[in-house]
What we know:
The structure is a homodimer.
Chain A: H1 3-10, H2 25-38, E1 47-48, H3 50-57, H4 61-73, E2 77-80, E3 84-87, H5 92-115, H6 124-136, H7 139-156, H8 160-179, H9 188-193, H10 196-204, H11 207-222
Antiparallel strand pairs in A: 1-3, 2-3
Helix pairs in contact in A: 2-4, 3-4, 5-7, 5-8, 5-11, 6-7, 10-11
The structure holds a DNA duplex.
Amino acid sequence: MSMTQASVLTAPTAADLEPIEQTPLRVQIADRLRRAIITAKLRPGTVLVETALAEQMNVSRAPVREAIAILENDGLVETLAYKGKRVKPLTVREVEETWSLRQTFEVMAIRRILERRADVASLWIPCRAMRDAAALGDREGLILADEQFHRMLIALSDHHLLLQSWNALYLRINQIMALRNRRDSDDLAEIAGNHPPIVEALQLGDTRTAVRLISDHTRALRDFDPASIVEWLG
Amino acid sequence: MSMTQASVLTAPTAADLEPIEQTPLRVQIADRLRRAIITAKLRPGTVLVETALAEQMNVSRAPVREAIAILENDGLVETLAYKGKRVKPLTVREVEETWSLRQTFEVMAIRRILERRADVASLWIPCRAMRDAAALGDREGLILADEQFHRMLIALSDHHLLLQSWNALYLRINQIMALRNRRDSDDLAEIAGNHPPIVEALQLGDTRTAVRLISDHTRALRDFDPASIVEWLG
DNA sequence: AGGAAGTCGATTGTCGACAATATATAAAAT
DNA sequence: ATTTTATATATTGTCGACAATCGACTTCCT
């Protein structure tokens, strides 16, 4: 084997040959289904039939089955033996609980960040993104930057398990947000403006203020009419 | 069909015919494996081979596979594509994080219980059980009653999602406790004695004291030498 | 007509076999 | 001797088929 060929392998020049994605089918399928669920393309209560999905995606039932199992772990799907599988219905109670748990998680993160005096300057990045998105009326972009802000906040607390739990919870938050009736009355600028004070309080080491702000923040977001979400109570 | 036969069906007399258990194989297998893991019969790092397990339990690979997927959801097992599956190794960090998250959960439960003025009298039951077990030197019984106490505490907060998260977390706590070196130096009576003050504080509506006690409690339990747990770091 | 038993269709549960992949080992070439 | 290539083996990934179960509908008997 000559050196030139070796160099090609280690440093492709012209046509950059990216590694082809080699994720298991079950993961690809799970990702697709998850995406469909948290964007409300598959609404709560929708029954999932393995054979139908398998045929639709042109694969066998096995990976579909495993994908559904993954979503079950995510808490997005439930299985009733010999009965069927369906997107887990949402109750008002679950929405409430999701938000209160989220609040607990974020308060925990805040406390840890302050205890360890972590550098939170990176939080300004999503803050700026939110401000810009709000200025452009880009609702989608604002939502994304908001998620990035909060995920970053959790990550800064340097607690793997917390981040993991938060991620799982945030799946449902995404779902709920996609489900709830769009209210253009939402003031994007106000949402964006809520975040910088949190970063400031963190940089000042003001635990009390930071906790209060994050609590108010999640509480405010919770007060979307839950009734609009629960039209499919089977 | 005569009436006598019908009556037999509705009201079995002598040989009480209980409903036969009809849980899917995957669940039975998952339960067994989970039990083996949280009792440290299967130690962290142990590789799980589907074919071997299937043969050993005299079933096909499919339900074994699904059972392992369930345990993966529980966070007890990890899968590396085309590499293998193994009981998730434990790091000191994970042990620390498990306990800190537990503390957060229990503090949240305490706060909710006090906010809603829930009746916590039922907590005296496991308290008594712990006292009795301690008196008899029954370490096993004390551990069980302790778990019952804490699960009951979470349940009293009336928060499904929290209870669910706590249950998942407690799996790992069981595993860790089974793994750590038994120290007979533990004062059973002291452990049992730690709990009644919590109930008293709750009944008095003393939030500050209750939170402090539960925090001390979980903190104390965390201080088992983590080094003894991490002898299998692959 | 009413109720029990049987039948049918749909869906999940389980199985055995084959394909794809990764690791380790051995062989071969320079 | 070292690196490359080939091979072997173990394990997971995927597939198609069959069995078990459920629900609704039909049929039959009284």
